[in-house]
Write a structure and sequence with these properties.
Keywords: Signal. The chain is α+β, with helices and mostly antiparallel strands. The chain is built from one helix and six strands, in the order H-E-E-E-E-E-E.
Length: 152
């Protein structure tokens, strides 16, 4: 019995280490992604909106994901700002591929404010665009959305 417990503990430790270890794809910028904050601690200053100047992003986050949108009718915007045009909507049942993340407008959901957005491709609809990380499921490392910073 003791040997089985020790073997299980060793397997858990190796699995946890494998899940928590992240190696960025070659050429990808590794940047620490800021954590969301409780809405009560969010700054009052809004992020300036600009809906031009961003370009589509290469898929530098090479990990595929499926069904990681945590709501239905989630807007996929042209730029990481709430006032920018939405080119489509993602659903919980859609297959999603993350490309990269960057800072954008603050979005508060369930009492937590997020400042990061993920550029993604909705494989179900073939629409690409920005989604606030407030609407994306958590990764094993505790962040939401892509873990690779966009190269612009």
């Amino acid at each position: 019995m003791r040997n089985r417990v020790l073997a299980a503990a060793a397997t858990f430790a190796m699995t946890a280490a494998a899940v928590l270890t992240f190696t960025a794809p070659a050429g990808a910028e590794v940047t620490v992604k800021p954590k969301p904050v409780p809405a009560a601690q969010a700054p009052d200053t809004p992020t300036p909106r600009h809906c031009s100047g961003h370009t589509p992003h290469n898929d530098i986050d090479q990990r595929g994901y499926a069904r990681l949108v945590t709501g239905d009718n989630v807007n996929q915007r042209r730029y990481p700002h709430t006032g920018c045009v939405s080119d489509g909507q993602a659903q919980r049942t859609h297959s999603i591929d993350y490309h990269c993340w960057r800072d954008g407008d603050a979005v508060t959901r369930n009492g937590v404010t997020y400042y990061t957005w993920t550029y993604l491709r909705n494989d179900t609809t073939e629409v690409q665009g920005w989604v606030s990380d407030a609407y994306l499921a958590s990764n094993p490392n505790g962040t939401t959305g892509s873990t690779v910073h966009c190269d612009d």
